[in-house]
Amino acid sequence: MVGLAAGADHRAGAHDHVRRHRRPGTRRTRRTRRGHRPLNHAPGPRPASPPTGTAETSHRMPGPARPTPFTDLLRQHAIELTELDPEAPLEDLEPLRDLIGDARVVALGENSHFIDEFAALRERLLRFLVERCGFTLLAFEYGFAEALPLDAWARGEGSEDSLAGHLAGTIPIGVEAPLRRIRRYNRTAAAPVRFAGLGRVFRIFAGPRRQLRRLAALSHLASTTRYERDPPPCDAPHLTTRPDPRRSERHGLDVPAAGGSLRPALAPVIDHLRRVDPETVPAAERALRLADRFAGGSAAVAAPAWARLTTAEQDDLTATLARLLLRFRALEPLYAERGGRPGYDLALRLLEGACHADHGFRAMAGLFAGEGLPGDTSARDSYLAGSLLWHLERSAPGTRVVLAAHNAHLQTVPISFDGRLTGIPMGRCLRDALGDDYLAIGLTAVTGHTADMPRDESAPFGFTVAATALAAPEPGSVEAAFAGAGLGSGTHLADLRPLRGRAADPPDRIRLQGSYLHTPVVAAYDAMLCTGGSTVTRGLGAL
């Protein structure tokens, strides 16, 4: 009950973000912002990219489907993207300018991690949004605490080769290429791009029921992000030194260590407490010792170990974290006076991340035991959304954000399985907070292969990656709608907003790795990017 109370307390804080960020009556208008310097690509030859919308040679495109009123409308509001290579000219993306209007946060999704075409498309869209539209912050899936050294690297600290050391032991979710692009860009940019991380925890167990098998498809990974005005470099001993605001920064928004360890969050919190409230350090250290007993490379490893703690140990950890969080908030004036406002803000956010991760273990254990409360897994997405708003509050006025995360995080309607509420996604929280300043673009594929992630406790991150062939799109899916509209090959971007309420039988599902998430697609996303084929990144195996 203590953990639930702490989660409810944080959700109330998220509602404060909503009140501060809502802009009622916003309208989408064309924003013309030219003259931005291109995001320079790395010198030397680049490996050839696959043709747009193609997949492995064994893939076959689905046969033609009969047009419907919805597919006719979809075709009318879709444009074709002629290039897939991130370094190709950007002219085919110009219609995107009208689609995004004045949106402050543009979210780019994917129905599966580890897909080559999705990574290439998102990097290309990032280039366009930075070079042509003036976006200055990239928020990516990665852990809040773990993003600190990556932020420093993106701002120019360390050597080019040192990034490999920062990423060693982390899940390769496609953050390296955007990081290198941003670092190169920031060397000479007049308006540097900040780099923020929004990771996704791999947190789903194998389960015997149909609901649990489908929930397993929601396995996402860790995230990172930092902010522009106040956050200190990763090695600041007391979280008080400010970075150079002229350089790019990386921001972590996710819970710590892919949900597999609380140490990345709790260790700097303890260091901060030694300065501002040393009497509290023993309690925080006790929480860290308990957390270290089940730490792993991701939640897929840590969650089973957490379940093997005794009930008394689980409750002790939850109660200690909740008490620390309440004390942090109650003594805010004293802490801020002793340690500085930036240090307090960052340490508080890290502690909130630890509390949310602990709540996530408890919520998932209850879910798979058949005892969980409906929507009890929402705390993590609430934290992701709150972290993005937290960074926006500390960014320069007019900052615009590219947010890269899984489709299931970005959609704006609740997620349910078999009629039971599973969670409120980050996208819903951001829509409530930002209104039309938030734009969600889903990304999916008609055919090809997807990256299923079967659980394997012996693997470093608790799962392996298996390239699984996709069956023909199910009737009623958005993928089937694209195929039926004659858009099943190549790559097409459709604005879904004009379709709302205008056609019967809109799609009610979207691919979720090798399965489907049943959701009102036209209401859940503002636009949909669909490629004809998808290819799993090679060489992942057990990671």
From TrEMBL:
Instruction: Locate the region Disordered.
Output: 1-70, 224-257
Q: Where is the composition biased (Basic and acidic residues)?
A: 241-253
Q: Where is the composition biased (Basic residues)?
A: 17-39
Q: Which InterPro entries match?
A: Emycin_Estase, Hydrolase/PRTase-associated
* Any coiled-coil regions, as ranges: none
* CDD domains in the record: Ere-like
Q: What is this protein called?
A: Erythromycin esterase family protein
| Species of provenance | Streptomyces cheonanensis
* Lineage, broadest ranks: Bacteria, Bacillati, Actinomycetota, Actinomycetes, Kitasatosporales
